[in-house]
Amino acid sequence: TSFGALKDFVKHIVPLGVYLVMPAPTHRTFDYVLVADKVDNEQKTLRQEAFIAQLEKKNIHITRITHDNKDFFGIRAPSEMFEVYQYLLKVSDSCNCCGDEKGAVTQATRIRIVHFILHHTYINTGENLEELLMKDVFETMFCLHERKQQKELRKKWARWTALFSRQPVNDIKSYFGEKVALYYLWLAWYTKLLVPAAILGVIVFLYGLAFFNTNPLIKEVCESNITMCPRCEKRCGTWQLSDSCTYAKVTHLFDNEGTVAFAMFMAIWATLFLELWKRHRAKHVSKWKVYDWCEEEEELIMELVNDPNCKAKQFRHSYLRSTLVLILVTLMLMLIIGLAHALVVFRVVAAPLMSESKWEFLKDNANLVSVFLGAVLHYITIQIMTRKLNSLAATERSFTVKMFTFQFFTLFSSLFYVAFFLGRINGHPGNYVRLAGHRLEECHPSGCLTDLFIQMAVIMLLKQTLNNIVEFTVPWCKRLVNEKAAKKLERKCGHCYRKACREENGCIEPCDICKHREWLRNYHLASSDAFSLFNEFLEMVIQFSFTTIFVAAFPLAPLLALVNNIFEIRLDAIKMVRLEQRLVPKKTNDIGVWTKLLEAIGVLAVIANGLVIGITSDFIPRLVYRYHYGPCAKGKLDYTDCMEGYINDTLSTAYMNSSNFDAFINPWERHNFSITECSYRDYRNENDYSLKSQFWMVLAVRFAFIILFEHVLVMCKFIAAWFVPDNPTQVKNERLQDKLTRLKHELR
Asked: Last residue of a domain, which of 88, 111, 144?
């Protein structure tokens, strides 16, 4: 055969014992297991037999065990196949120093190669394994856990009692491959650097809490006798500003001077985190000998191992396909934005309906309850859209950017509305903007930041808590159910008393009973696939977005992320080691496109936090009042507080018909009616509702602050990125020394 010719060629040109490994004794563990239902369908049976025959042509050993109307095919590749792989690694350009080119072939490497061969084996109809699985010719496929290594990982890592223990990344790399190891390395690094961010966030929160009862702005709201205009039409009446005392206190917890400093810190933190991560990654991939690893080159090597007569894959680009993808992505984003608009309509309609509820609590807190319900509904929408998008994208190999974009818009579209549009496009008394026949929502006199905080807190808490519960309990319950079935099947197949079968370090072929028992144990675990790790990364990168983008509105976000990640690491470890089928080990030297997405989030965080502080927060209006309109600005230095009168300064006066609160009277006609005065949040003249000069002053300072904030932080980010090199000097020196050693070895 062509494979045999390549094998002979390798054996002749490479001195045996120098570059190649002597044929190992019988390999105890199978590399893969295929499972098929026994069916009467002749076409399916013929396809099964054709595929198995193609594998046997490649000298792959197949062990077939039939049990309970299922056929189990144990697959074991010959040692010669791995000798060829090792030789091709040695003569390759980028993969020749990975350490796999000499020494014993690890089980992780065997699984990776056999996985590639299985997916690149075709029967005479042109169908490969993926198509056969879709047509139910085979039920499933999985690689086997190694009992001894699995036990070690459970002891060191995959248990709740090891919650604060250091992760054995080298053992994870040896068992699950570099791709999984880099995920846990990145997650541990991210969690570690969340500690200073969480501490500072708590300090900012405590700073707001320290002045909870003594802040003059809170006192001004709580002791006020100002009558406010109705929040809605027909069912709402006037209300007292002092009724919102609690709301004002909560707002001050997250809208204070410390928030600005914290937002600046988090923008620089995001940059330092990424730069330090690149250094951390470089140290480990250099240690693992995959710094220069090229995935495309290894794929070529495995193509040759699978078929020596193969042809190189041709890269193609279709403008038509790209156009169709762009149109579909645009339509999907429009759908997501439409859902965000639907949530806005829900909040607008829900508040007035609840204000006429029979329940006193709903009636008095209609706006607050509608905000909470909107946030919960937003979370439910996120979950539904995520599942739909996953099912749509499952056929696309490189869909990371598209999936992240969809998820990002689904999560943040509603938050962007609350942050930058809520209360700014609703009009004024006598000229309100309406949606679905109802007035748009207004900001509370203390500001809109609390609405943003509530939205973020609800989504983040629900997403993290419920996701982790579902993520762990589903495979755990499946294991409990399947364990009973497995034990029942084990009782049917009898017991083995061979000492050799129980010897984990031996190389003696186990008996059929022990083979089948091991296969059943893995078969009944929750399935895993190429998207399992993608979903974990996506979850963490979305969390990173929450932690950085709107952190000015929610300083406790890093603390919630830190607590979640401490449990997330162990949860994922237990799930991968004990509850799920073994992931196919993948070799890589980076986390891929996720690095670019994290960098993009870091830039967006600077823009978003600048806009939140400049537009959503009351930081700028308070600053302008203190230095331009307040008592201290007018030279009245005997005042104990320069912010006295601020709340009243942000309110404007409107006139209502005393007999009908829904009818606002034009200021110049107020002498013709029996009127009631009320206040609303805006900078408008009471004579004609025109905007005051103070509005334009505040607006100008807002824009000036945003430009200054973002330019300063972008400059700081560039300086931080330049100051912290991606590649440590120690790694450069070690790599040079390693290359020199290998070259000297070649000269001997």
From this structure: 144
Report whether 119 contacts 32 (CB < 8 A). no
- Tell me, what's the pLDDT at 183? 95
- In DSSP terms, 681 is beta-bridged to 651
In 3D, which of 678, 687, 654 has the Cα closest to residue 226? 678
- Beta bridge partner(s), residue 444: 447
Euclidean distance between CA atoms 436 and 423, whole angstroms: 17
Token representation of residue 82:
């791995």
- Identify each DSSP E strand in 373-437 by its residue range: 427-428, 431-432, 434-435
Q: Could you tell me if residue 212 is inside a domain?
A: no
Structure tokens at 310: 């193969």
Q: What is the pLDDT of residue 505?
A: 55
pLDDT by residue (tens digit) across 130-159? Answer: 999 988 899 999 999 998 899 999 999 999
Q: Which domain holds residue 639?
A: 620-706
**173-197 residue pLDDT tens:** 999 999 999 999 999 999 999 999 9
Determine, yes or no, domain membership for 221: no
Supply the pLDDT for residue 707: 92
Single out the residue of 530, 523, 517 nearest to residue 592, CA to CA.
Answer: 530
Distance CA 383, CA 389 (A): 10
Alpha helices (H) along 421-511:
449-493, 499-502
Q: How far is the C-alpha of 162 from the C-alpha of 147, rounded, in Å?
A: 20
CB atoms within 10 A of CB 256: 24
Distance (Å, whole) CA 179 – CA 292: 15
Question: How many other CB atoms are there within 10 angstroms of residue 315's CB atom?
Answer: 6
Distance (Å, whole) CA 550 – CA 412:
10
Which stretches of the chain score pLDDT less than 70? Answer: 1-28, 93-103, 234-235, 347-348, 351-352, 355-357, 363-368, 371, 378, 382-383, 385-399, 436-437, 446, 482-512, 634-640, 659-662
Side-chain half-sphere exposure of 183, counting CA atoms within 13 A? 23
User: Residue 232 falls within a domain, yes or no?
Assistant: no
CB 423 within 8 A of CB 441: yes
Q: What three-state secondary structure class fits 477?
A: helix
What per-residue confidence (pLDDT) applies to 509?
64
| CA 691 to chain CA mean position, Å | 44
Q: What tokens appear for 57 in the block?
A: 């042509």
- Phi/psi region, residue 398 (left: phi>0; alpha: psi -120 to 50; beta: rest), is beta
| Residue-level pLDDT at 18 | 33
The domain total for the chain is 2
CB 259 within 8 A of CB 552: yes
- Whether residue 172 contacts residue 181, with contact meaning beta carbons closer than 8 Å, is answered with yes
Q: What is the pLDDT of residues 588-623, one digit of tens each?
A: 889 888 998 999 998 888 888 888 888 888 889 989
Q: Could you give the CA distance from residue 511 to residue 516 in angstroms, rounded to a whole number?
A: 9
Residue 61: CB atoms within 10 A of its CB come to 15
Residue whose token pair is 């026949």:
437
Closest CA to 276 of 515, 602, 535, 501: 602
Separation CA 335–CA 36 (nearest Å): 40
The answer to whether the Cα torsion of 344, 345, 348, 350 is positive or negative is negative
Q: How many CA atoms lie within 13 A of 123 on its CB side?
A: 19
Task: Show which of 125, 144, 163 is a domain's final residue.
Answer: 144
Q: How deeply is 188 buried, as exposed, middle or buried, from its count of CB atoms within 10 A (0-12, 13-18, 19+)?
A: middle
Evaluate if pTM is beyond 0.85: no
Give dist(CA 510, CA 507) in Å, integer. Answer: 9
Please tell me the distance from the alpha carbon of residue 560 to that of residue 572, in angstroms, as a whole number: 18
Distance CA 551, CA 259 (A): 9
pLDDT (0 to 100) of residue 202: 93
pLDDT given at position 338: 77
Amino acid at 686: E
What whole-number distance in Å separates Cα of residue 506 and Cα of residue 497?
A: 16
Distances from the Cα of 165 to the Cα of 188, 253, 451, 466, 560, angstroms = 11, 35, 39, 25, 20
